[in-house]
Amino acid sequence: MKVLGINGSARKDGNTAIMIKKAFEELEATGIETELIQLSGEFIQPCKACWACGGKGNCVHQKDPFQNIFEKMKSADGVILGSPVYSANISANMQAFLERAAAVSDMNRGMFRHKVGAAVAAARRAALSIPSTR
Among 1, 35, 39, 124, which is most buried by a count of CB atoms within 10 Å? Predict the structure, then answer.
């Protein structure tokens, strides 16, 4: 059994990676194999909505790392998606990855049936300090 973790953070080995690795510790303790992919330093292009992926099982555009990551995702028994929260949303790279993954899986029904999924989000809360104009 294998679980793939995809870290959508722009910061390699940052808080999001730490949280995924913490989950991995529990999985590895039970004998489950894990692999972490970090999108830091990569650029995932957005979906072109061409629908050419229908019947192909993967995106047909070969200009970025999406295809290799998606193949690993398809072969894994489980997937953990992780992203920091930027402006009340996931990272742009993770958003692009998920949009393409959704298009491919919609055009190739059943490829993620019986897979386990989980998500983690790293968020920071702080007071906003506005300097006084007096």
Answer: 39
